[in-house]
Amino acid sequence: MPVLLSNTQGTEYRACITVNMSASSDLTTDLSTPRDESRADKERVSTGEPKSVMPLFPEGGSKAWLVVLGCWCTSFASFGIVNSFGVYETYYLQNFLKDRSSADIAWIGSIQTFTQFSATLLAGPINDRYGPMVLVWPFSFLLVIAMMLTSLCTEYYQFILCQGILLGMSCGLVFAPALSVIGHYFFKKRAMAMALASTGSPLGGIIYPVILNNLIPSIGFGWAQRVCGFLSLFLLAIAAVSLRPSGMRRKGNFILLDAFRNPTYSLQVAAMFMVILGLWTPYFYLANYGLAHSMSANLAGYLFALINAGSFLGRILGGLLANHVGQFNVVTVACYLSSVLLFCWLAISSSAGLVVFAILFGAVSGAIIALMMPLFAHTADHPSKIGTYIGQSTFVVGFAGLIGTPITGALITDDQGYSHGIIFSASAAMVGAVLITVARYTFAKGKTVP
């Protein structure tokens, strides 16, 4: 019969998992509405139907940590290249697309972010039904092809198609299923495991810009981009052999719209939408801001590496803190800090100040990004729904990534400089922080929550 599993953090999972006693390795999941328990028990006795048990979370072991490694590789190859877009924007403004405005070029990165997030709307449910490998294998190849095609681009529409749409979509369809599988192996340590897996993203955001900045002057943009593509191919090959599906599958509706009836889940999605609306601004515009304030071009190019270095530390620290004080609490504090730091950015004009800002904002934003998907996963009432919960929520949040930086770019003017764009970003992040606070208390009803 259906069993309630209460964990130490106050949440409950209800599921009905049937184990075939004649073949103990055959595990299927029935997510239909439970019938009357006493009647169900009588039917099982009369028909010989086995009793139901809850899924067990290994919380470690070689197989589980290999999954984390595989997800880390996909994070590096997907989010890492997306986090490096600031380098591309600066280069495009000075070379291929010098006749375009920064807002125009920002659309390339925004479309890339949007397609990456929105692709999870399909990736989540497909992963829940068929496992991650049906997506990871083909779209790993497509991701590498997209990077190679980008190396051949010279026109605006070509960058939109190859880097914005094809590369962004491939990144989302590779990373999302890999991350979802972690939820099948961890429960108590889920936030920490997902946060550790996501550290590949900022590390990629450090390595890719360093490769591009050092190789473009000597071998040109095309071959520098191809070197990045070969690195991605190597990492995705490791992911393909490291990821191990759990065998847990879900039936039923493709999209779980009923999830939005949960006020906590809906508030989480709304909060992350507002935060992401302003969060990417430094990732896109910090180098250009530095150049406008007399920073050397060489140092400005490394601001993206610094912000990703801070993000790397923030993700590790955020994951560890989430295990002790709860992921809801960590995300809430980080959202407020991100808004405060963005407002502080208004008063920073020195090179030293921008370096410190890049590291601090990277750390705070890294904690938010690392724990955003575990936060969505935590509201799922069964592990087999995690992919869909993450997919449909990040699809909505993806629209913030689509419009946020172009709005900021449009607000950057010769008369007012960056002030209006920064104020918009900081205000959006503050609204998101308030919403996540409400979500926290809706979920906890005043108690300490995970």
TrEMBL record:
Coiled coil: none annotated. It is a multi-pass membrane protein. Its main location: membrane. Residues 63-444 form the Major facilitator superfamily (MFS) profile domain. GO terms for molecular function: transmembrane transporter activity. Residues 33-46 have a biased composition (Basic and acidic residues). The keyword Membrane applies. Keywords: Membrane, Transmembrane, Transmembrane helix. CDD domains: MFS_MCT_SLC16 (cd17352). The chain crosses the membrane at residues 64-85, 130-150, 156-179, 191-211, 223-243, 264-287, 299-321, 328-348, 354-377, 389-412, 418-443. The keyword Membrane applies. InterPro entries: MFS, MFS_dom, MFS_trans_sf, Proton-linked_MCT. One of its GO terms (cellular component) is membrane. Residues 26-51 are annotated as: Disordered. It is found in: Membrane. Belongs to the major facilitator superfamily. Monocarboxylate porter (TC 2.A.1.13) family. PANTHER family: ASPYRIDONES EFFLUX PROTEIN APDF-RELATED, MONOCARBOXYLATE TRANSPORTER. This is MFS general substrate transporter.
